[in-house]
Structures are given as C-alpha cells and as structure tokens.
Amino acid sequence: MIEDNIKNLEISLGYAFKDIGLLRTALTHSSSGEANNQRLEFLGDAVLEVCISSILYNKTPPLNEGEMTQYRSQIVSEAGLFAVAKYIKLGKYIRMGKSFKKMGGARLKSVLSDALEAVLAAIFLDGGLDSTMEVVTNLFEKTKSLSQHIQDYKTMLQERTQKHSNALPEYTLVKTEGPSHRPRFTCTVSYEGKVLGTGVAGSIKQAEQEAAQQALSVIEGVISET
Length: 226
What we know:
Elements: H1 3-13, H2 20-26, H3 38-57, H4 65-75, H5 78-87, H6 98-102, H7 109-127, H8 129-142, H9 153-162, E1 170-177, E2 184-191, E3 194-201, H10 204-216, H11 219-225
Antiparallel strand pairs: 1-2, 2-3
Helix pairs in contact: 2-7, 3-4, 3-7, 3-8, 5-7, 7-8, 9-10
C-alpha cells in the first residue's frame, strides 16, 4: 500500500497512528493470503459497542435501557457501519485478493463494515479508548449515523401540524404484550380524528416516537385534504 494513501486515510479518520502496522493489518482482507484483519474485527465489534453505548448513555434527555439497546443495534448494524465506511472511502484502502477484488469485494457492505471495525480496534490498541471515542464520535456524527436514529419525531410532528391548525397529535396506548421483564407496547398517533401512525417498541416513549415517525411520512396528504 502506498504510504500517501495511508496518510490520506489517517486524515479522514482524524487520527495519526504511532504503529502504522496496526492500520495495515486492519486493512488486510482474508482473501489476500496475508495476516488479515479478522482478529481485529472481533475486538473492534466490542470496542465500538462500548463507544456507542457511552455516547447514548450521556445523551440529553436521558434514554432508557430499551431505547439505548434499540438505537445501538441500529447504529452498529452493517448498514450503519457501511455508511461510515463509504464516507471515508475505506474500500479503496483495503488489501484483498485479485479475484475477490474483481468480483467487487471492495464494495461489499460486509467487507467494508468489518474493515471499519478492524480499523477502530487498531486505533484502540494504538491510542487507547479515549482516542477511539473521539474518532467514533466525529465519524458517526459527520455521517449523521447518530442523529438519524435519535430524532425527536414527536416534536417534529407537532411543529408540522401546528403550521396547519391548533389541533395537536394525540397518542394512544392500544396494546401491551410480552413478559413483564420484556414488554412490547403498541401506540398510535391521531390527528384531527385520523390515525396516522402506529409504533411498537419496548417502551411507550419509543413506541410513540415510532408512531410519530410513521405519521410524518403521511401527514402532507392528510393536511392537503383538509
């Protein structure tokens, strides 16, 4: 790998490695036939969960356990990591076998998301948890990977409806099911007598948020009819 390319990646990451060998290993796919990034992927998965959990724990207003679990699973999903990997153009830095590369390996979601985890593990080993937290926070906020999963859809819906009339969205808990230690709540949101959205989640608060998010996608049609 060309040294300048590594420097460009370090700039994108906002982190300069003391041991550049860690980054090289993190960028080496198993198809290359060389020492690869699989062990770093394993570590990176755990490190990323710690970082995202800490970010969510310190959010204001505070999120409950169910909300933090749900948001974290969305943020660290393959799709979430893929978005961040694309943002820093990680695919062009990954070393892989020629045949695998010809098959489009550098564009695969699984390859890019795994490589991102490996890179974060490399940062953790090279600079510690604080450095990794800083990189994770910057990258995930720049790509809106955090904010898009932690939107206050209820406020957004209320602001949208108030532009049309003084009527407010009304939320109703319509069903509670599941065991006491893991309940599932179903909530609906209505506006001027019409049910616009339904949400199901592990807390009433999150179920209402999901209902509001759904309502936002149909509110324009409802308002235009009135």
